[in-house]
Amino acid sequence: MNLCEYHWHPISISAWHEVRPHLHCPAVAKGHIPTGRVVIEDVLNLAVQHGAKPNNMTRWKELDKLNREKFARGATWGVGPS
Question: Crossing angle of helices 40-49/57-74, nearest 10°?
């Protein structure tokens, strides 16, 4: 059972024609909850916070930091709060 799902359909493919990044949480709300852009590291960190176990936590933290630094250098729309 999926509790929440992140979606982004840059081209309208759904009946709702929602093209912005959004979240579906059927247990919380119906429809689309706008999120803005979400980096995969945020999704993975959320999974870790809720019990997922990286193969190597030290390496995961290193990769997370490295990827966020690379992302920040190329993000033309900003990176949000630290």
Answer: 150
Task: Please list, in sequence order, all residues whose beta carbon lies within 8 angstroms of the beta carbon of residue 70, skipping any fewer than 6 positions away.
Answer: none
Tens digits of per-residue pLDDT, 54-76? 999 999 999 999 999 988 888 77
Domain borders along the chain are 1-37, 39-75
Establish how many alpha carbons lie within 13 A of residue 59's alpha carbon, considering only the half-sphere containing its beta carbon. 4
One-character DSSP codes across 2-49: -S-EEE--SS--STT---S-EEE-TTT-SS-EE-----HHHHHHHHHH
Q: Is the pTM of this model over 0.85?
A: no
